[in-house]
Hints:
Keywords: Cell outer membrane, Membrane, Signal
Family: Belongs to the SusD family.
Subcellular location: Cell outer membrane
Organism: Chryseobacterium formosus
Helix content: 40-55%
Protein name: RagB/SusD family nutrient uptake outer membrane protein
Amino acid sequence: MKINKILYSISISALFLTAVSCERYLDTEPISDQTVDVNNPLSTAQRAEEAMTTIYSDFGNEYWQLDYLLNGDAQTDISYAGADNVQNFQQDEYRILATNTNVNRDWGYLSNFMDHCNKILNYVDGAGDLSTVRKNQMKAEASIFRAMYLFHMVQLWGDVPIVTKSFITINSDNFDEAYTQLYPKRQSVNDVYAQIISDLEGAIANAPASSEKYKANKGAAYALLAKVYATKPNPDWAKVKQYSDLVISQGYSLLPVYDHLFDSNHEGNAESIFEANGNASNIWAWCTSMYVGTDWKKFNTPSNDLIKTYNDAGDIQRLNTTVKFSAVGWSDPYWSGNNFPFMNKMRLTDGNQNFYILRLSDILLLKAEADVRTGDFSGAATLINQVRTRVALPAITITSTDDGINKVLAERKSELAFEGHRWFDLKRTGKSISILSQQKNGSGVILPYTSNINQNRLLWPIPQAQLDKNQNLTQNSGY
């Protein structure tokens, strides 16, 4: 019986290597001439540091460079999908199929990113020539990243697997555990959030200082915790305010000029909490040419609604920073070719573009939302007005909870457009269907595809390719 189990393990291990290693191992490790210890792939400081570099190199991946912004904005009233990818059109028009290749690749990317984190968390203690202080910091950074990616997954799909182990070898001793981690079941949303919170709260003590803006730092952990406590089922608004205040206490401040956030002359600035460093040797920020330029139709075309929002409010500073108009050699159902809009926050086309993962105004407006939810309308208005004052807009007042949430959402829309937040903001506040079903074209006519939006469409389908590979997964309702 034991022999049969070992033989079966060997057979399944081969299957694992065929199905998994190409995605998780073979093409994700930095090149090195070191021999890998099969019992501990991070047995030296060099190996451990290479594994950390891999985690940060993921900012150069298609997920961050393209999909994250499309997921957060092209599914909303901020932008149209743009370009000519039919998979993106499915997202834009709330008719995603389980066979959508964007959805499948994002599941794969996020799973791989978390596996990179698990390598550090599972094996870095075995790096004999690495100091304990450095090991603990690396584990803290990896925990913050893993929590962030799991947060992305739970918002996109709801119940998702919780995978905390990275396997280098599979044998009869670890076979059962390996099977549950490589072919995992979906876990409840509540369990997923508990894991996220555990990772983030456990990372704070050893995370890099908040001043290290290109690392997963203490300020980033605080900011993510504020967002997580606001987003999870039964939000804890006291915790949102607690962690927002901890962010604010780190010494961040709003830049006096809004455009300086994106002009590439103020990188790692006072408002930045966590920033992807496009100037780093391990990140090539190729994405900008996907959004700006007149040589071909680009992705994430600003919507008529977004331009109207800026113009109606007299919000000229943020309009000019966020959107650029040019004459082009094409048109579409929304815009003519003689004055076509492009998202303008990603501007450098030389591969050195930085982009924000978290910045202060996001957290100020999140705290304003928490204030509204707890009845502090005056406190919420003060925070919103702090953001509005920078762009020379008049102060607002708040008269009720619904009025406050609507004003928070309106400010977040104008302040954070094309930074990947809108889809998740609308879902968190329960406003997705009421707002997105009323999207209009430039003539004021409701767009026909908005009738597709319903409660089921607020979660993506589990990719059919993943269901085919893993019989332990189940599909979301409505797909």
